[in-house]
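User: Round two. Same drill as before: sequence, then structure, for each protein.

Assistant: Same drill it is. First protein:
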Amino acid sequence: MPTEISGSTGVNKIQDNTIVNADINSSAAIAGSKLVNNEYFNFKFATQNLPAATTLVTGALTEYSGVTEASNKVTITNGGIWQLNLFVCFAATGNANSRWMEHHLYRESVKIMDPRCFIINIDGSYEYTSVAGSVIVEVTAGDEIYLNAAYNQTATISDGYCSAITGRRIS
């Protein structure tokens, strides 16, 4: 049975910054909405065929709090320090002996991540590969996060490959 705190030691008497992790029961189920930085997003890429050019990669928010999405860009509602993660799995579909792929993650017009790959095509068929990366970056309210992809051959991203940009505000 819970202990009621009242009188001169009641909850309203607890001073700021006096409760520490050791004061919280390890089995406490604290809702994410009670945490200061409960802002996150999952921008899942749509199935799309990308040309041999630089292209804005399309998708949609599937889970989110503290962000909005328009024109295939995620807009941060509250500034702070964010961890952004990128995972792109794709099939290189051009019939070439070698292919390169660049994935440029932007905050506004500033490139903040640039994972690349180079594929040697052994048998002339589709080659499946992936790139991933993570970056911690300071953003301001209203900043847009988006991915441009550049390929020297056509490629396909499928929503079944779990390709996405994810982010979580960490301070």
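Second protein:
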Amino acid sequence: MKKLISLMLVLVMCTLALTSCGGANGSPEAVVEAMMKVMTDFDVSGVKDLLPDEAWEEMYKELDVDEDEFWEDMEDTFEEAKEEMEDADGYKVEYKIGDVEELDDDEVEELNEELEDLLDDDIDAAAIVTVETTITIEFEGEEMEMDEDVEYTVIKYDGKWYIHPEDMDLF
């Protein structure tokens, strides 16, 4: 049971830490879809596209690490999480990208004020994307399921969509 709880904690931490994605930065839904793929496949290669470069640079400064060291640690963390999930008897994440609510000009301006110390320019637009998730882990014959609707704020910056840095729980 203790190991099952550990597995759930790893999964929840991944969910909180990775609420961001990329590669497909063409729409609010695409960036959230990319984030979910990173989380379900434990694929660290897609993480960097989830935030603007300036956000990552700020994080390296905050953590007092260089870029290479950070990504090596991230790869190790993802590999450990993946191994934990593979050790489970069954592990499945299902999700569905739900509604997209575009934010109005006042809300975008608020986000610009929040992000002014982090990004070089103002964001162009913002939206809230709802993702319906069902996470099922079976371990030692016991099954745990977590159903949750999660809302991610996404921002359009320099023509691309990204996860809001605070939703990545990194700052």
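The chain has a mean pLDDT of 77.

User: Perfect.
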